[in-house]
Amino acid sequence: xxxxxxxxxxxxxxxxxxxxxxxxxxxxxxxxxxxxxxxxxxxxxxxxxxxxxxxxxxxxxxxxxxxxxxxxxxxxxxxxxxxxxxxxxxxxxxxxxxxxxxxxxxxxxxxxxxxxxxxxxxxxxxxxxxxxxxxxxxxxxxxxxxxxxxxxxxxxxxxxxxxxxxxxxxxxxxxxxxxxxxxxxxxxxxxxx
Length: 193
What we know:
- Among the domains are: 15-42, no CATH class; 62-108, no CATH class; 126-175, no CATH class.
- The chain is 47% helix and 0% strand.
- The chain has helices at residues 27-30, 34-40, 53-59, 73-84, 89-96, 100-108, 126-138, 140-143, 150-154, 161-170, 181-192.
- It starts with 26 loop residues before the first helix and ends with a helix.
- By secondary structure, it is mainly alpha-helical.
């Protein structure tokens, strides 16, 4: 439910004489009273302690978090995408919170290349690791197989046991005593005595 509104005359309906003078318009119609407008529209109400300069700040592009005006690779990808969609440099800068110079520089220079990780590649492939883990956990006999015999027993003689053991260790797999070890060890100890 809206409050009572004051009659206003739209600009197109203001009577104008042939000599371009305004006919019969009162000052109340020509210049709206700010106090009355703020009373009729509750969304426009402001408290006296409120700083109205924040609305001006929100119109400016937000600061960019990177030092020295640098852009990240993600920023450059976004700039490239928005440019392909037909946006102007000014629109892109306002949308991403960058300066126009940053947008222009990013468009003229290529994206940073994605390099593969340097160093030696792992000798044991993921599929082989999963196979070895499943093989070790499949039976008690396999579990007790010493590390030097694991590659030959799994059908992977081209891999060393240290490579398999370290690859499994990197994934958090440890060949520690299983939960059933105490039961088996207890039975074996009972047989010996």
